[in-house]
Design goal:
Helices cover 87% and strands 0% of the residues. The chain has one domain (2-101). The chain is mainly alpha-helical and 102 residues long. The model has no long low-confidence stretch (mean pLDDT 83).
Length: 102
């Protein structure tokens, strides 16, 4: 019985590791599509939001240090774009509101 449980746990960890690695690849493709202007910012944000959260919650399940670095790298690239765009949006709102007040 313990052997069966151990086998199931090992398979589960292996599947989670593969799923996280697949998510990294998906984020890289989405990031590239946004950089090439093949998708909009809204699409980029919608496509990446859940994937980034999933990776952040499962970084420790990635099987190798090199893969963890790739995951961290793409998380940083995506969150940087989102943060940058949020800042630009806030500046536009401030400028728009300033124009209205004048």
């Amino acid at each position: 019985m313990i052997d069966l449980y151990t086998s199931i746990v090992k398979r589960g960890r292996a599947m989670l590791s593969l799923l996280t690695e697949c998510t990294v690849l998906m984020l890289r493709v989405i990031h590239e599509m946004y950089r090439e202007q093949r998708i909009t910012y809204e699409e980029f944000r919608n496509f990446t939001k859940v994937k980034i959260q999933f990776l952040l919650e499962n970084l420790n399940s990635i099987s190798t240090e090199a893969e963890r670095r790739k995951a961290t790298d793409i998380i940083n690239k995506c969150t940087s774009l989102i943060s940058q765009n949020n800042t630009e949006h806030m500046m536009n709102v401030i400028c728009f509101n300033s124009d209205i007040l004048q």
